[in-house]
Amino acid sequence: MFYRYRFESEIYPTLSRIPLHVRMKLDLTGVKISLKDWLAFSMEERNVLCHLAVETDEERRVFSSYLNLLSRRYFGEEAALVSPATDPPWDNLDYVPDPVQSRSKETGQAVTTHEWSQWNLCQRYALFKLSISKNEPEVFFAALREFREGSGKTS
Description:
By secondary structure, the protein is mainly α. It folds into 2 domains: 3-81, no CATH class; 89-154. It is built from 8 helices and 4 strands, in the order βαβαααβααααβ. The chain has helices at residues 20-29, 35-40, 43-51, 57-75, 98-105, 113-118, 121-132, 137-149; strands spanning 3-4, 31-32, 80-81, 153-154.
């Protein structure tokens, strides 16, 4: 599955940046790659990473193994590992994480627990990651607008 956000649509034709959905997969598997690493992979390889699922332990192992294969092929070493996200804040439907709450208040309408619980995992992940990012704060607001309008698709 590959969740596509409207606010990221300009990167999908070339996959010139690591899509947020792939970043979520990296966080969940504990694999770390840089943009330079990502761009070294062929377009087909990047597409595979976009579409691989990470919902089960087996799928996470496959995703990590594929990244290790690519890393060995392109860089001669295993992919860097960090601790995988366990009990991530975007997984809790009953509590809007503080960074999301704070950033969304800037719009004059803070994210409610009801909204948060209605959004899917990919949407909650995006809002959380964008709320803690120091770069491009306007992307958080674009994502929030998109989710409140009910957009986003899986392919």
